[in-house]
Design goal:
Largest interface: A-B, 29 and 25 residues
Distance between the termini of chain B: 40 Å
Oligomer: heterodimer
Shape of chain B: globular
Strand content of chain B: over 45%
Order of helices and strands of chain B: EEEEEEEEEEE
Structural class of chain B: mainly beta
Largest sheet of chain B: 6 strands, mixed
Order of helices and strands of chain A: EEEEEEEEEEE
Structural class of chain A: mainly beta
């Protein structure tokens, strides 16, 4: 049924606080991706998982950012000690596979808009 | 390097055709995608084109692909006010999508 869901949809936090953003992919999708979209820009890749294994985290800006997908389904993106520059839309996507085929088409969630004051 | 480029803004009158252009870098891309982003909504896949095609038509949408020049375009016929949105082209890297900066389409009544 449902598409990719993310929560919360909006998060306002104070500088220095930790935040956890949740992504619930489409059931049965093997691959899960996190992107960050700054205002006026296209989404930029952060990290991705196949099942529970994090395959690539090269897009994470620094070590304050981490992600996990412990059971190969729901994923959490955590930002520690948030800074104002972390303010952005964080988007999650999932796909059946990650190979270069139609099955790798990524379906995006509505995003979480994070504002760090 | 990886860089997908788009013009930032396009303004058209209702009923006219809109053409949104994109240049991409990865000549080995199997598919190329167009996404639509409306305020408060997620990224919606609008259409895609397989790399061995020159053109794909889907109702009011026509996608043209020039592989030699690595140029992709999206034409929207009979543009409506509901088409006002940001349009992103995207090329799939090995597994991560590379998005353009997006073209904001404004449709004037």
């Amino acid at each position: 049924g449902a598409g990719v869901s993310q929560s919360p949809r909006y998060k306002v936090t104070k500088r220095g606080q930790d935040v956890a953003l949740r992504c619930d992919p489409i059931s049965g999708h093997v691959s899960l991706y996190w992107y960050r979209q700054a205002l006026g820009q296209g989404p930029e890749f952060l990290t991705y998982f196949n099942y529970e294994a994090q395959q690539d985290k090269s897009g994470l800006p620094n070590d304050r950012f981490s992600a996990e997908r412990p059971e190969g389904s729901i994923s959490t993106l955590t930002i520690q000690r948030t800074e104002q520059r972390d303010s952005a839309m964080y988007r999650c996507a999932s796909s059946l596979t990650s190979t270069r085929s139609r099955a790798s088409e990524q379906f995006f969630g509505p995003g979480t808009r994070l504002t760090v004051l | 390097g990886e860089d997908v480029e788009q013009s930032l803004f396009l303004s058209v009158r209702e009923g006219d055709s809109s053409v949104i252009n994109c240049t991409y870098t990865d000549s080995s891309s199997t598919y190329l995608y167009w996404y639509k982003q409306e305020p408060g909504a997620g990224l919606q896949l609008l259409t895609y084109i397989f790399s061995n095609m020159d053109m794909k038509q889907d109702q009011r949408l026509t996608v043209l692909l020039n592989k030699k020049d690595k140029h992709l375009s999206l034409r929207i016929a009979d543009t409506q006010t509901g088409d006002s949105a940001i349009y992103f082209c995207a090329e799939p890297g090995t597994y991560k999508y590379i998005f353009g900066t997006g073209t904001r389409l404004k449709v004037l009544a």
